[in-house]
Write a structure and sequence with these properties.
By secondary structure, this protein is an all-alpha fold. It has one domain. Helices cover 81% and strands 0% of the residues. The chain contains three helices and no strands. The longest helix has 38 residues. It starts with a helix and ends with a helix.
Length: 72
């Protein structure tokens, strides 16, 4: 592998890790809010999916999923 490609991959992975970290923090916050909501309304089941994906950057969501799957 050329040094350039290696560095590019490295920075990509770092970015991805940061993104994943940020997302998991967001998810924890969302989960916390959700739990509070669920106590009020038990029957709302698919609420979290639409709320999580409807943040205006769907392509970003897809990308971080792809990266997450490709990291060994």
């Amino acid at each position: 592998m050329s040094k350039n490609a290696f560095e590019l991959r490295l920075s990509l992975e770092q970015e991805t890790l940061l993104t994943i970290k940020k997302r998991s923090e967001e998810k924890e916050e969302a989960n916390h809010r959700e739990q509070q909501q669920q106590q009020q309304q038990q029957h709302h089941h698919h609420h979290h999916q639409s709320a999580h994906n409807d943040d205006g950057d769907d392509d970003n969501d897809d990308q971080s999923c792809l990266f997450r799957n490709s990291i060994p």
